[in-house]
Amino acid sequence: xxxxxxxxxxxxxxxxxxxxxxxxxxxxxxxxxxxxxxxxxxxxxxxxxxxxxxxxxxxxxxxxxxxxxxxxxxxxxxxxxxxxxxxxxxxxxxxxxxxxxxxxxxxxxxxxxxxxxxxxxxxxxxxxxxxxxxxxxxxxxxxxxxxxxxxxxxxxxxxxxxxxxxxxxxxxxxxxxxxxxxxxxxxxxxxxxxxxxxxxxxxxxxxxxxxxxxxxxxxxxxxxxxxxxxxxxxxxxxxxxxxxxxxxxxxxxxxxxxxxxxxxxxxxxxxxxxxxxxxxxxxxxxxxxxxxxxxxxxxxxxxxxxxxxxxxxxxxxxxxxxxxxxxxxxxxxxxxxxxxxxxxxxxxxxxxxxxxxxxxxxxxxxxxxxx
Length: 371
Prior knowledge:
By secondary structure, this protein is an alpha+beta fold. It folds into two domains: about 40-135, Phosphorylase Kinase, domain 1 (2-Layer Sandwich); about 140-370, Transferase(Phosphotransferase) domain 1 (Transferase(Phosphotransferase), domain 1, Orthogonal Bundle). It is about 35% helix and about 15% strand. It is built from twelve helices and twelve strands. The chain has helices at about 5-15, 85-100, 140-145, 150-170, 235-240, 250-265, 275-285, 290-295, 310-315, 330-335, 340-345, 350-355, and strands at about 45, 50-55, 60-65, 75-80, 115-125, 125-135, 175, 185, 190-195, 200-205, 210-215, 220. The longest helix is centred in the N-terminal third of the chain and has 20 residues, at about 85-100. The two termini are about 20 Å apart. GO terms for molecular function: ATP binding; protein serine/threonine kinase activity. Belongs to the protein kinase superfamily. One of its GO terms (cellular component) is nucleus.
C-alpha cells in the first residue's frame, strides 16, 4: 500500500506556509495577490458556465457553475496566478486522483466522505482550476450562523461520519493534516429551527447531516509526514512540541471539531505553543507526559524545532515538576479553560467519553498511539 515519498509533494507542502513568512523585498504575500476576475455567464475551460460566487480563500476563489455537457451544478476553485500556487493546486489534484484510485472497492458503491474532483484545467494560461461536486455549507459557517452548538444527535452523526472518513483515508495511507471546521462541509445546506435542548433559545438543525471532507492541499502519504502541519488551534501535542507525527494528528483535530459541534466554539483559542500546551493540560486534566518533554528538549531535526520555552519545559523534568511558565495574559487565558468533565452535561456521559477518552478510543489522548 505504501508508495515512495514524493519530493515535489514535500516541497509543495513546505511552500504552503509561505504566506506566514515575511516575503522578500517587493514580493507579495499570497493573501495580497489578486483573485481571478469573473462575470456571470463566463465559460471556464470551454465547459463550465459561471453562475455566481461561493467564497474566497488565501489561495483562490470558488465559483458556482453549471456543466454545459451534463447540466449538473458544480463548484470551480480558481487558483490565483502564481507559479507556486499552481504547483500546489496541481499536487492537490494529483493526490485526490491517487486517493480515488486507492479507495477500497467496497466503499465506491456509496457516497464518499471526501469531496470528488470532477475535472481540472488551466484557465487563461496561469489560473489552475479544479472542478468539484457542489456541496452545501462548511461546519464553520453553519456554527457561526447558529451561534451555538448543534443538537447532540446531529453532533454524534457528524462525528461518526468524520471518523469513518478518516479511517478510510488512513487505511490507504494518507493523512489530511489540516482538518478544521472550515474543511468539513455539509453536503446540503438546508436546515430548520427548533428549541435548543441545552441552551435558551432556538438552534438550527440540518435537514441532512451528511458531511464531506475538503481541501486536500496539505494531504500527504504517511511516508512523507514532516515539518509543521495544520492550523494552530487544531494541532495535536506532538505537532505543538515539534515531534515526529503520523495520521494520529488527524484524530486529535477530529476531536477538536467534535468539541466545536457540541459547544459551538473552539476548544483552544491560542496564540502560541506554550499557552496551547497549558490549555491542553487544563482541558484534559492531565500533565504533559515526561517522555514528550524529553523528546522536545532533544529534537531529532533541529530545523523542525518548535517555538517553545525550553527552560520552562526543562523544569518539568524536576521533582516536583514545575507549572508551565507563561506570560501573564496567556496564563490568565489558560486558567480560564474548564476541564471537559465540567463542561459536558452529566446526561451526555457517552459523549464526554468520546472526547475525553476511554480505554480504547480516546480522541484527546496525549500519546498518539492511544488515539
